[in-house]
């Protein structure tokens, strides 16, 4: 069954708003706890700063960097797994806030958890690559991004 036109593609503003809300959620639930745990429980000597000729240069110790990574990756992994579950149920918190949902591109039905997880990982890659995967949304009428095409999804405004 082909998707019908009664499902309008989500607007670029809706998608940007959802991305902003989800990014703020990521910052609050992953970056802030990682920073606090590193400050409270990390190695004593974290950063060295020197001022030479009027300019400051700072470096992080290898131990502090290893500790921060060992805290960040498990927390980020749990976030991605939970976030993907919400996508499989239709929408992340950001998408719910902007009243849009992720559906199968052909049937307009909810997607499986596996596809939602793949979509989440690919969307992170799209954003990390300077948003290049997101630029496709500017050039097509369905406003689909690279990760939408790869995982065969679309974002609609019901």
Q: In what range is the share of β-strand residues? A: 5-15%
Largest sheet: 3 strands, antiparallel
> Numbering strands along the chain, what is their spatial order in the largest sheet?
1-5-4
SS-based class? alpha+beta
Span of the ends, CA to CA: 18 Å
How many structural domains can be distinguished in the coordinates?
A: 1
| Number of H- or I-type helical stretches | 6
Protein architecture, described:
With 158 residues, the protein is of the alpha+beta class. It has one domain (8-36, 71-157). 56% of the residues lie in helices and 15% in strands. It is built from six helices and five strands. It has helices at 12-41, 62-88, 93-97, 113-128, 136-139, 146-151, and strands spanning 8-9, 47-52, 55-60, 101-104, 153-157. The strands form two sheets. Strands 1-5-4 form a three-stranded antiparallel beta sheet. The chain has a two-stranded antiparallel sheet with strand order 2-3. The chain is elongated.
């Amino acid at each position: 069954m082909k998707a019908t036109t009664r499902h309008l593609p989500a607007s670029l503003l809706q998608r940007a708003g959802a991305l902003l809300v989800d990014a703020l959620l990521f910052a609050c639930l992953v970056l802030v706890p990682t920073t606090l745990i590193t400050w409270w429980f990390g190695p004593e000597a974290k950063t060295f700063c020197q001022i030479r000729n009027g300019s400051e240069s700072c470096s992080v110790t290898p131990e502090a960097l290893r500790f921060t990574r060992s805290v960040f990756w498990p927390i980020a992994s749990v976030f991605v797994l939970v976030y993907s579950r919400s996508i499989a149920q239709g929408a992340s918190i950001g998408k719910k806030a902007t009243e849009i949902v992720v559906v199968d591109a052909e049937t307009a039905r909810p997607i499986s958890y596996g596809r939602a997880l793949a979509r989440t990982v690919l969307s992170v890659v799209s954003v990390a690559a300077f948003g290049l995967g997101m630029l496709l949304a500017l050039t097509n009428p369905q406003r689909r991004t690279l990760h939408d095409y790869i995982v065969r999804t679309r974002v609609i405004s019901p």
